[in-house]
Amino acid sequence: MLVSLFAVVSSAATVSGTVMAGTGPAATYSSVGTSALVAVDTSSHVWWMNSSGGWSSLGGSATSSPAATTPTPAASPANGIMDVFVRGTDGALWHKWTTNSGTTWSGWKSLGGQVAAGTGPAACSWGAGRLDVFVQGTDGALWHKWSTNNGATWSKWESLGGKLTSSPDASGATSNTTNNIRVFVRGTDGACWYKEWTGTAWSSWRSLGGQLAPNTGPAVYGEVFVQGTDHQLWRKDFSEAGSAWSHLPACPEVLSASSPAAFWSHSGHPEVFVSTTSGNLMCCFYTGSWTPVNTWEWFSETSPP
Fold this sequence. Notes:
Layout: E1 8-9, E2 26-31, E3 34-40, E4 46-50, E5 56-59, E6 67-69, H1 76-79, E7 82-87, E8 93-98, E9 109-112, E10 122-124, E11 131-136, E12 142-147, E13 158-161, E14 169-171, E15 181-186, E16 192-197, E17 206-209, E18 219-221, E19 223-227, E20 233-236, E21 246-247, E22 261-264, E23 270-275, E24 281-285, E25 295-299
Antiparallel strand pairs: 1-25, 2-3, 3-4, 4-5, 6-7, 7-8, 8-9, 10-11, 11-12, 12-13, 14-15, 15-16, 16-17, 18-19, 19-20, 20-21, 22-23, 23-24, 24-25
C-alpha cells in the first residue's frame, strides 16, 4: 500500500484553508526521496512545502495557479534543482528557482509574454538542462518558450496555435525517450486535446474526448486527469490505445474551478492533488487500483499559513 508522501490527518476535520480561489497546486520533486507542493494563498503570495517540512514563502504576487518542474529528471532531484513559474500581476510569466532543494532561492525573474487572464503556465523537462514552459496567450493560442541551460538563457516565444479554454499541462519527464513533449489543453468543445513534439516537429492537435469543467485544464504525469462537468475527477491511461475515461472516487469536498496536479511518487504510483472551494488542498493516491481501494486525504498542514 502506498503511503502518501505528505503528512496527513485521518479524520475529516474542517480545516481553514487559504488557497487563492480559482487556483490549484503544482507538484514535483525537490530532491531524491522528497516531493514538493506549490500553492498560491489568498494574498497572491506563492508558498511551497516538501514532504519533510512545512510551508515556506516564495513571496511574489501571482495571479494564477503555479507550475513546478525539475529539469534533467534523472539528475536534478539529486542536485536539488526545482523551478517554479506563475503569471504575475503584469500578465507576464515569472520564474523562481532553487539549486539546493529549497535551502535558498533566486529572486523572481520575468520571462515576458502575456498569459491569458484566469490561466496559469505549464512546465516540463525532457533532457539535461532542458526546460520548456507553455501558456495560453491573450489570443487564445498555445505559446512556448524553452531553455537549454537550466534557465540561464531563454528562447523567444513561439506560437503553437490552437484555441485553448484552459491552462495547459505538459509532460516531458515521463516520456519514453528524450526530446519528446506532450502538451494537453481544454479545447473550445470542452474536450481534452493534446499536441506532441516528436523530436523533429510538432504534431497536429488530437482529441482525447471527455468533457472538462469550464475554467479547468488537464493534469498529466503518465496518465491524464481532468475535472469533469460533474465536478469530479476523471482519468485516462494515455499509454493504453483506445482507453476510456474512468471516474476516480468522489472527493469529499467540492472541487474548486481550477486544474488538478498530477505526480508520480518515488514509490512509482500516481498521486493527484486538488484544491477545494473551502481552500483546502487534498490528495487522491493509488494503492493498487483506482477503485475501490484508494483514499482521499487532507494534509496536516492543509494550506499556506
